[in-house]
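ok trying this again, last paste got cut off
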Amino acid sequence: MPNLGPGRCLRSGLRSLVLDSGKVRVLRLGLSLLYWGERPNWGPVLTEETRADSFTEFVAEHETKLRQSLTAAFGVERGKDAAAESLAYGWEQWDRISVMANPVGYLYRVGYDRARRASKRRTIRLPSVDVERQPWVEPGLPDAFASLAGQQRIVVALLHGYQWSMSEVAEHLGITKATVQTHNQRGLDRLRRKLGVEL
């Protein structure tokens, strides 16, 4: 074992070892690092009870938005699966994720990346429109909506379908409000062209 000072790290293949008060904890991380010395500052060590309570509160507050954003990105079924996978990962890594500045944004990226890698299909499936149902919905909307570029589709769905504010979308996706506004405008313009609607 190399002689590393406190807080120093060495890249490792699959796992990270963290020396914590003389005990070694094994953590699985995306980019694993071997820490030798002081435990990285991931905030206070959570007991099982406080960890469960903290994660339960997080899920109650953020699960809906996480699911909505991943559904906008991948369609209903893949979006639900991606949200469930990202929350499962969040539970496994909660000690580290709970102290992040934007944990829901991080878990969105986890779910997004995993769903994208798991599926070779680039198109999303949206429910078809029942033309007999009220209120009336343009039958061509699901296909036109699915044809939008990824970020445009997500932004338009969150702003207009789920009534999020631009600030909420920007924070959740980790982009600026100006970028949200650009994606929204381009997405709406493309939808109008596809559906033959003029303002």
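PB: full thing came through this time. The chain has three domains: 8-40, 48-118, 141-195.
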